[in-house]
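PROTEIN DESIGN WORKSHEET
SECTION A - STRUCTURE
LENGTH: 148
TOKENS:
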């Protein structure tokens, strides 16, 4: 690693409890190593034949607003230190592209986001990132629900 390179962490954010935990872990880890954190949230157009979104939909702007809300909710005052990036496309591919663009030293993802196959050990996005990343990947487990 050259002296000009700052340790870079890229984290996938989707508003799920596991992604929130991954975001908090990424900020904690970056603080330990003096690194930066880029949080990535992805949007995509539904693939439905002959469908157009109703009204004036700006999915990128809506996603950026949601990303800002999620980061502030999960991190509070520490949110200011996080770079935000909104991308269009498949979440796994967009996260890998963001990591490549940032010359990331580490990717952090939650173990289960808002995917549909709840019986899987890892979500499909997490599994794809783990298998295709060119840097280490940390998978943060969803926090256990507290019993009352």
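SECTION B - SEQUENCE
RESIDUE ASSIGNMENT:
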């Amino acid at each position: 690693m050259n002296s000009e390179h700052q340790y870079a962490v890229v984290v996938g954010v989707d508003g799920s409890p596991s992604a929130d935990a991954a975001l908090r872990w990424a900020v904690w880890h970056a603080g330990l190593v003096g690194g930066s954190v880029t949080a990535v949230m992805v949007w995509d157009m539904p693939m439905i034949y002959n469908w157009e979104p109703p009204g004036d939909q700006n999915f990128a702007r809506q996603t950026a607003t949601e990303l800002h809300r999620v980061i502030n909710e999960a991190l509070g005052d520490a949110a200011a230190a996080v770079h935000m990036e909104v991308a269009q496309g498949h979440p796994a591919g967009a996260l890998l592209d963001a990591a490549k663009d940032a010359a990331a030293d580490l990717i952090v993802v939650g173990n289960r986001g808002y995917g549909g196959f709840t019986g899987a050990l890892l979500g499909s996005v997490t599994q794809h990132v783990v298998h295709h990343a060119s840097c280490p990947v940390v998978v943060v487990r969803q926090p256990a629900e507290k019993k009352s």
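SECTION C - NOTES
Confidence is low (pLDDT under 50) at residues 116-121.
The radius of gyration is 16 Å.
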